[in-house]
């Protein structure tokens, strides 16, 4: 398991309206793991039911190797009570909208609010993602207004496309690095009863890390 070479595990969730492309983005990212299979064509991506799990190891530019545990959630309202129960135990959130769907952009503040209400302020690090950047001719959210929203909510903004494989790694790298920095500053702390960040002992055999591990402040 990749955790053999990883010192930390960050749990990250993708949130956003139905059909904005969360599953396609995540599958494209996971397919970038050396040796991984190409993802199914996105046209075959069926709507997510509840929550699905993925993982990928990542070497941060400045810091240790990280295991990302990635949770893909259903955007449809009828699954909201299931997906909501996962918000508390994440350290990173990709807030995804479809740049050809204005409503999905307008709903970003609601998604942000939902997580903040569940977690309390300063627990999670967010990244705003404008997805389907290959569809420039039908775009209806400008980069400038997305940047403004991201700034007002205290997060960075990245435009991605699963179809073109544009900025997919950049989005996850940016979020993971922002989490590392927040840990280093002490803005986010490792807590025994919180699954957002876990310390993984180098010698640990594969399997879920103990809930009792608390290595103190992050040294990354
Ligand atoms: N043009 C374009 N289409 C995309 C892209 N990513 C996803 N799609 C399409 O968008 C539709 C929805 O994609 P999904 O990945 O299932 O969206 P989702 O947000 O996971 O949907 P839910 O599971 O219902 O919440 C599919 O038809 C995809 O083919 C992209 O980068 N560019």
UniProtKB/TrEMBL annotation:
Record protein name field: Ras-related protein Rab-42
SMART domains registered for this protein in UniProt: RAB, RAN, RAS, RHO
Alphabetized Pfam families for the sequence: Ras (PF00071)
One Gene Ontology CC term in the entry: membrane
Source organism superkingdom: Eukaryota
Gene3D superfamilies, A to Z: P-loop containing nucleotide triphosphate hydrolases (3.40.50.300)
Broadest EC class assigned to this enzyme: hydrolase
E.C. number(s) listed in UniProt: 3.6.5.2
Protein encoded by which gene: RAB42
Catalytic activity line of the entry: GTP + H2O = GDP + phosphate + H(+)
Any one GO molecular-function label of the UniProt entry: GTP binding
Function noted in UniProt: The small GTPases Rab are key regulators of intracellular membrane trafficking, from the formation of transport vesicles to their fusion with membranes. Rabs cycle between an inactive GDP-bound form and an active GTP-bound form that is able to recruit to membranes different sets of downstream effectors directly responsible for vesicle formation, movement, tethering and fusion. The physiological function of RAB42 remains undefined.
Electron transport recorded as keyword: no
Residue ranges, annotated region (Disordered): 200-220
Bilayer topology: Lipid-anchor
Family: Belongs to the small GTPase superfamily. Rab family.
Primary localization class, coarse: membrane
Keywords: GTP-binding, Hydrolase, Lipoprotein, Magnesium, Membrane, Metal-binding, Nucleotide-binding, Prenylation
Cofactor section: Mg(2+)
InterPro entries: P-loop_NTPase (IPR027417), Rab_GTPases_membrane_traffic (IPR050209), Small_GTP-bd (IPR005225), Small_GTPase (IPR001806)
């Amino acid at each position: 398991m990749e955790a053999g070479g990883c010192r930390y595990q960050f749990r990250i969730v993708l949130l956003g309206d139905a059909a904005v492309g969360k599953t396609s983005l995540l599958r494209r990212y996971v397919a970038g793991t050396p040796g991984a299979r190409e993802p199914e064509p996105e046209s075959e991506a069926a709507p997510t039911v509840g929550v699905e799990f993925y993982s990928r190891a990542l070497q941060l530019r400045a810091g240790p190797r990280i295991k990302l545990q990635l949770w893909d959630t259903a955007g449809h309202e009828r699954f909201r009570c299931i997906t909501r129960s996962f918000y508390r135990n994440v350290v990173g959130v990709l807030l995804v909208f479809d740049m050809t769907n204005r409503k999905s952009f307008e709903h970003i503040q609601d998604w942000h609010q939902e997580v903040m209400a569940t977690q309390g302020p300063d627990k999670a690090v967010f990244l705003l993602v404008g997805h389907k950047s290959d569809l420039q001719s039908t775009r209806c959210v400008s980069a400038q207004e997305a940047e403004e929203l991201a700034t007002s909510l205290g997060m960075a903004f990245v435009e991605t496309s699963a179809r073109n494989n544009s900025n997919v790694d950049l989005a996850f790298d940016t979020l993971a690095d922002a989490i590392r920095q927040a840990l280093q500053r002490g803005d986010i702390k490792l807590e025994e009863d919180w699954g957002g960040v876990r310390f993984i002992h180098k010698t640990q055999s594969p399997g879920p890390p103990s809930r009792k591990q608390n290595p103190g402040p992050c040294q990354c």
